[in-house]
Amino acid sequence: MDRRNFIRISSIGTATGIIAPTPVLACADTMAGGVYYTKDAPGRWSKKVKGHWPNLEISRKDKQTDIRVVTLHEMLGYEHYIIKHMVLDKNFRFIAEQLFDPIKNKKPVSEFSLGDYSGRVHVLSVCNTHDSWLNLVDI
């Protein structure tokens, strides 16, 4: 899907989400391999899974949950790099993000503190060349 179609479809999706949010969230699984990619639905990037899919490490101490996100991707300057990691809640609402500077950051690794949040967490790793990759975990 080219970026113009993505923007057009995103606009339609946003408008639909305001009017009828439940059906939009229900179709999230069908977007894998098109709008974003997963390990099981890599779409046109089937040979790029290992370097783009965000690996998640969860740690808990008391009532505190932390997530460490590691993407096994080289940071090749501004030519090819991971732009950011983003964390979304179970309803795809923004929780946090970590932006990367490919000159300063040698590896795309980020850590997020979720406090006492429980439920599904969606984590995106965004590449400037190979789009967005999604992993999820239930906390």
Question: Summed up, what is this model?
Answer:
The protein is an alpha+beta fold and 139 residues long. It has helices at residues 3-19, 21-26, 49-52; strands at residues 55-61, 64-70, 82-88, 94-99, 109-115, 120-127, 131-138.
Question: What tags apply to this protein structure?
Answer:
alpha+beta, 7 strands, 3-stranded antiparallel beta sheet, 139 residues
Please specify the SSE layout and strand pairing.
Layout: H1 3-19, H2 21-26, H3 49-52, E1 55-61, E2 64-70, E3 82-88, E4 94-99, E5 109-115, E6 120-127, E7 131-138
Antiparallel strand pairs: 1-2, 2-5, 3-4, 3-6, 6-7
Tell me the series of helices and strands, N- to C-terminal: HHHEEEEEEE
Rounded radius of gyration (Å):
15 Å
Biggest beta sheet summary: 4 strands, antiparallel
Backbone structural class: alpha+beta
Helix % is 10-25%
β-sheet strand percentage: 35-45%
**How many individual helices?**
3
Q: Residue ranges: pLDDT <50 for 5 or more in a row? A: 15-26
User: What does the overall shape look like?
Assistant: globular
> Widest sheet: strand order?
4-3-6-7
End-to-end CA span: 32 Å
DSSP summary, beta strand count? 7
What is the typical, i.e. mean, pLDDT?
85
Structural description of this entry:
Helix content is 19%, strand content 36%. It is built from three helices and seven strands. Strands 4-3-6-7 form a four-stranded antiparallel sheet, with no helix packed on it. The chain has a three-stranded antiparallel sheet with strand order 1-2-5, with no helix packed on it.
